[in-house]
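[Meeting: bench + compute handoff]

Bench side (C.D.) handed over the final construct sequence. Compute side (W.E.) agreed to return the predicted structure before the next meeting so the bench team could plan truncations. Sequence as handed over:
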Amino acid sequence: MPISYPESPVSIGDHIRKKRMELKLLQKDVAKICGVSEDCITNWEKNRNTPQIQYYPRISNFLGYLPFDVDLRTLPGKLKAHRYINGLSQKQLGKILGVDGATVCSWELEENKPHKAILTKLDMML
């Protein structure tokens, strides 16, 4: 593999670059798959910026896995995984649950825990 091949990807851009190179695709090919411009892929791969969460589902589908460390044994990890898989911001998930996005953030940071009624909704959702 070329020198620029990321053996141990750290960033989401590294994961994208590694998979693209393994599949022998051009950046424009990955751009079509992800529904973004070729410049976006270039900037992600060079870690100039990171993708917006709305692109996470397409990126995960392209990669075949979720390129984030989340602990699916915990509520915060399940919340993050659900958001990433569905391309939802904390604000968007909060709207679905009838709470503020900052509340979702506090759950993910384990600063607070959801009330019983919300836990019931989350159990059905997750």
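W.E. noted at the follow-up: The chain has two domains: 12-63, 75-125. C.D. will use this when planning the next construct.
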